[in-house]
Specification:
Blueprint: H1 2-18, H2 37-87, H3 91-119, H4 125-145, H5 152-173, H6 178-183, H7 187-197, H8 203-220, H9 233-250, H10 254-259, H11 261-267, H12 274-299, H13 301-327, H14 338-352, H15 357-362, H16 371-400, H17 402-423, H18 436-439, E1 471-472, E2 476-479, E3 484-487
Antiparallel strand pairs: 1-2, 2-3
Helix pairs in contact: 1-3, 1-4, 1-5, 2-3, 2-5, 2-16, 3-4, 3-16, 4-12, 7-8, 9-16, 9-17, 12-13, 12-14, 13-14, 13-17, 16-17
């Protein structure tokens, strides 16, 4: 199952990065001329517009068709977009292709975190979710190594072939989310899916999981639905946390350094050719993602964010110091290597945590009935913010200088460290209810005499197991057969 999920994320997210290749050389550019600054601006802006369209569609399509059908449907316009890129002879068709592919890519990214959280087990949910980050790093490496030496048409067909491979492996082998069938009252099908994706679960445990999912669905099906999501304090808290994480993600320095990669390489006196630097950074990013995948379920999401924040802030501040000294005309020849080393370490630190964990957490902190809608809101917020920052950075650089921008990013990343420490829940423990305060979980025993967990109740933090078989103060337990609280002298998890 791990391998199958890895294929899904590789085929979808890998395409996202490859689409960024825009050749200007006449021998590979189908336009026959380099694009102008205005045309390049339109190509970037229209992809962001497409991304916004994709985020709007995620919530509706996931509820209407389910994750699997939605991903299959999105592959059709994506293929059309790739064919347009391969055969376009004018900028207008390229613009249409960017809108279509931008919408499809963000649409797919919005579905993956919730889908993985629905079908994965506790002990490997983080690993499976973080495969997305690894495939993006692989795509970066392909972009750096292959994208610089092939034409746009060749690259488009490479992307198209990967998508076809995705469909061949995805359609016949990967099931839809069990939550979809629970909502359709097809409990038997949900049970079969759980047994398939959790192959080490016996029949009895599979049935218990379906019972728990069914009871969870009955308890939350009317809560926080549709337009009421903003009326729930727990949902608002979750949205604030996810949007804040995406906000801090943009200020870790990765986006800024990617935009001004050539400037930083030149600041290192061109000790390495740009092509070699790009490929080396791509390899380091891929290794960092593999390390993150390995330890995310052992260390937890927050610990990796701590490490990532510390690495990103220290490297971006060191770059700020370097460019500040250069602005004051100090001799920096003795540390000519610093920009390149700091750049590489910043990218590695970013991929250890901030590159993928905000998306993973967004798939874990919301209940299943609003999960995809809230994820789409969070990603939409990040997309708009990225557009605003990308448009404003050139003016800020001219006004303040690169050193001030680097210092600001370092300080904001330090604030992100504190925010994660104080406000972000650790979601590795339970897929359905990681934090009672964030998710607004029902108390262990909703009996009138036990509306709230007692101070010494060991199950105040609801989990999939304790939500429906739990003890409150040693006297009341929930009967899984009747979903009622009954008196009992003792009860174990």
């Amino acid at each position: 199952m791990k391998a199958r999920l890895a294929k899904i994320t590789a085929m979808i997210d890998g395409d996202k990065e490859m689409l960024g290749v825009r050749k200007k050389e006449l021998n590979v550019n189908p336009l026959g001329r380099p694009i102008t600054k205005s045309e390049e601006s339109w190509l970037v802006s229209l992809q962001i517009l497409g991304s916004l369209i994709g985020t709007i569609l995620v919530g509706y399509c996931s509820r209407k068709f389910g994750c699997k059908k939605s991903l299959i449907i999105s592959s059709i316009p994506f293929a059309i977009g790739q064919l347009l890129i391969a055969h376009s002879k004018c900028v207008a068709l390229f613009c249409i292709a960017r809108v279509v592919t931008g919408a499809c890519v963000i649409f797919s990214i919005g579905l993956i975190p919730g889908y993985v959280a629905d079908i994965a087990m506790d002990h490997n949910r983080g690993f499976l979710s973080s495969v997305t980050g690894t495939t993006i790093s692989v795509a970066n490496l392909m972009n750096f190594s292959i994208g610089t030496i092939v034409s746009i048409r060749t690259m488009a067909y490479i992307v198209l072939s990967i998508m076809v491979l995705f469909l061949v492996t995805f359609v016949p082998f990967i099931p839809d989310s069990p939550q979809l069938y629970i909502g359709m009252h097809k409990n038997k099908r949900a049970e079969e899916i759980l047994k398939k994706v959790r192959s080490n679960s016996n029949d009895e445990k599979g049935i218990t999981l379906v019972d728990n999912l069914l009871l969870t669905h009955e308890n939350i099906k009317d809560e926080n639905a549709g337009e009421n999501i903003f009326k729930s304090s727990s949902t608002r808290n979750g949205l604030i946390i996810c949007c804040s994480l995406f906000l801090f993600q943009l200020f870790t320095g990765y986006a800024l350094l990617s935009l001004y990669l050539q400037t930083i390489i030149k600041a290192s006196n061109d000790i390495m050719p740009p092509y070699t630097v790009s490929v080396t950074i791509g390899i380091l990013q891929m290794l960092a993602c593999v390390i993150s995948n390995t330890f995310i379920d052992k260390l937890g999401r927050k610990n990796l964010l701590y490490i990532s924040s510390a690495g990103c802030s220290s490297t971006i501040i060191s770059l700020g110091i370097y460019f500040y000294l250069k602005k004051l005309d100090y001799n920096t020849d003795c540390v000519f290597w610093l920009p390149l080393v700091a750049l590489s370490l910043n990218f590695v630190s970013f991929d250890l945590g901030w590159s993928q964990i905000p998306l993973i957490i967004s798939g874990e902190v919301f209940t299943s009935n609003i999960k995809y809608t809230c994820i789409s809101i969070s990603i939409g917020f990040a997309t708009v913010l990225a557009f605003v920052i990308g448009a404003g950075i050139p003016f800020l650089l001219e006004l303040l200088g690169m050193d001030v921008i680097f210092f600001a990013c370092g300080v904001i990343t330090m604030i992100a460290f504190v925010f994660v420490m104080l406000y972000v829940p650790e979601t590795k423990v339970s897929p359905e209810c990681p934090d009672n305060e964030i998710r607004g979980c029902i108390p262990c025993c909703p009996d009138p005499t036990c509306e709230k967990p007692k101070p010494n109740c060991p199950f105040q933090m609801c989990t999939m197991e304790c939500r429906f078989t739990c003890r409150c103060d040693g006297e009341l337990i929930r009967d899984t057969a009747t979903n009622k609280c009954v008196k009992e002298s003792d009860c174990s998890k």
